[in-house]
Amino acid sequence: MFDIVSVISKHTAFLEDNLKALNPNQKKSIGCAFAKFYFLLPNVSECLEEHLKIKITEEQFINDFKNNNLQYFRNLLKNYDAETDPYSEDFVELEPMEINILSGLENCAFCLEEPQINMSNFLLVIDILDYYEDFSDNPEYWNKLLEEEIQFQKEIAERLSNGENLDENIYYERYKNVPFDEI
Hints:
- This protein is mainly alpha-helical.
- 66% of the residues lie in helices and 0% in strands.
- The chain has nine helices and no strands.
């Protein structure tokens, strides 16, 4: 089986090197592509409603992202972080997938402002696939996806470093039939 631990440091350095000089259109295409991926994960709307107290569809999020209109979402994330007290009696620890959903959409919301976040989107996909590998009844399936994802990301990063924009549907198309709800 593919061992992600043995390659993650080298892969991270590769991404860092190839994603350091992105133009604004590339950053936007990355954010849009990954937002569509995060909305494939189970219970995204419920997670956002429960933790950020917002009802938002994928379509609305993507449209607001494309129109640079996510300040309300960034504010909700900041308020959530500020109001979360892990020592309070009513503190509810997030499930791992809820953390991934919130982190991923936060990455998208801030990807135009903070350059290192673009690399974080790529690494979060790896983390999500690794999580599924660790906790599913079919780790071989997820391990194969993980191995393929590393190569896929290398190809994408090389294309981005050559000035191409990322197709905003690339991650949606790649993962739309993956059973993320089966864990």
